[in-house]
Amino acid sequence: MGKFGEYLKSAIKQIIGNGYRTAMTMLGIVIGIAAVIAVVALGNGMSAYVTNSLNDLAGNYGIFIVDTSKTSERFNQDDIDLVQEYLPDIKGMSPNIESYAKVKGRKETFECYINGGTQAFEYAFSNGIVKGSYFTSQQVETGSRVCVMLLDDAKKIFGTEDAVGREVDITANGKTATYTVVGLRDHMNDMYQFIMEGQDYFAQIEVPYTAMGADFDIKTDEFTQLILFDDQSTLNESVTKAKEILTNKHGLRGTTALSGYSMADFSDQLDKILGYAQDFLLLVSVISLIVGGIGVMNIMLVSVTERTREIGIRKSIGASTGAILTQFLAESAILTLLGGIVGIILGIILAFIICSAIGFDVIITPSSVLGAALFSILIGLFFGIYPARKAALMKPIDALRL
Question: 73 Cβ partners below 8 Å, 6+ apart?
Answer without folding.
Answer: 66, 250, 251, 252, 257, 258
